[in-house]
Structure formats: C-alpha cells, structure tokens
Specification:
It contains 10 helices and 14 strands. By secondary structure, the chain is an alpha/beta fold. α1 crosses α7, α6 crosses α8 and α8 runs parallel beside α10. The termini are far apart. Pfam families: RmlD_sub_bind.
Length: 297
Amino acid sequence: MKLLITGAKGQLGLQIRSIIERGKSEIGEIDEIYKNAEIIYVSHDKLDITVLKDVLEYIEKYRPDIIINCAAYTNVDRCESDIDTAFKVNAIGPRNLAIAAQKVGAKLLHVSTDYVFSGTGSVPFREYDIPQPISVYGKTKLLGEQYVREFCDKYFIVRTAWLYGKYGKNFVYTILNTAKEKGYLEVVNDQRGNPTNAEDLAYHILKLVLTDEYGIYHCTGKGECSWYDFACKIVEYAGINCTVVPITSDKINRAAKRPFYSSLDNMMLRCTIGDRMRNWEDALKVFIDDVKSEKQE
C-alpha cells in the first residue's frame, strides 16, 4: 500500500505521522498494514497543490493508493482579505487532488470544517444538513468539498472542529501561554462547538481510509462547550492560577464572522466504522497531562 499525505508539516499531518510511527494511538491500535506501507509525506515546499499541472505530474509519478489531504489555509480572519489565496488552497487544491486521484484510481480523504455551517440553531449538525457558511474561510472550504465530490468517485470528506494537538499553534497552547504570562483572560462565551484532540481525529482517519465507506463524515470530540468553558478547563487541568472572564463576541474586533453554534454530530461514524472519539474533557485532560509531564522531563 502506498499512502500520500499532503500538508504533512501541519498540526494534523504531523499527528498522523506520529501515530503511524508509533503503530497506535491513545484510543487504539492502527492496522498492521501501515507497518509495511510506503508513506509519502509532502508539504508546500515539495508540492504546490494549487497548481494542477504539478499535482497531476506528482500523483502520476508516485501513484498512491490513498491520498490524505491535510493542507488548508486556516487563518480565518486573514481569509477575509486574502481571498484569492484562501480560494486557491481551500478549493482549487482539493479540486486538483481529486482530479489526480481519479486519474490513478486512488482514494481521497479531504479534511474540512464545522465552519461550512451558518451557526444558527441549537442542535448538532449532521452530515445531511445543508451547509451555509458565513465567512470566506467557510465558503472556500465548502467549495473544496464540492469539488472533491464532483471530480473523485472514491472520496471521504471529514469535517472536524476546534482542533488542537501536540504540533503547531492552537487554542490550547495559546490559553496555556497567556494564562501563565498574564494571569487574566477574556474569552467569548457565546460561541459553542466541539473541542477535538488531533490524536483522536488522526486515528479515525487512518481507520476510515482502509475502507470503502465513502461519503461525508463529522469527526469531533463528544460533547460541546463554549470557548470560555474550553479555556476554563484548560486552566483548571494545567493548574494555573488565572482568572478567566466570559465576554460576548461583539467585544472582539475580528474580520471574519464566526458561527455561534457549530457543534457536529458524528452520525456517519456511528453508522459505519464506529465512533471512538473521546469526550472533549477526557481527551483534553490527557493532553494537558502529557504537556505537563514533557515539561518536567
């Protein structure tokens, strides 16, 4: 088996690599096929997925059985002003990979986001709910989904949310660092979603791509909270003496609108390969404990 991972130096790409190299994740073993698989880790410096000619040549050269696309332009606010780049990376890139995957008969797993939904309502969105993004980021990610569905027969679209992990920048690291430095935080309390540990997401991706259970998936931590609740738990689990104050979204000047409610329901996972995503608080506790133990070593 030959597996190609784009966006390999990003938060999720590195998490997938870590699990493959360990042969297991915190929530379970991965298939033994990965031990002898040829894994090609590629990032932007080796392949610009926004250039169709380059993608076609690269995929034709390596002819992978599976492509996992972790590449994305995720700076939500910057997407509002840098629209062309967001469109190229989040929409044209997946389109190019889909066209190339179809040509060589490869499966394509594309990672998407809760931001494809409007954020209105109070019930977790399921895979059959109609997307209605309110930001450039969400709109370009939705178009990327549509291109994947249009140009590739064997696809998995996996929407996740509020992702954090060991590698790169994320909300958990930001809160930990700011809480220690300032001892005071103001965090929005009127946006709700599902914190997701990248370890759990990576495990399910590696399980999913070995199947023929094609379609759209939601894959997030179980349970929901506000960003304020999330921050409070981070500070509590880390044992940091910090005051966390709830505020409303209108107190923060941001370029992009955020959905007020973007919780996802992992219905497709439950109905196919099984949903082993941890409760968001349990997964966060393990993550914070690991961060603390690494700093003590």
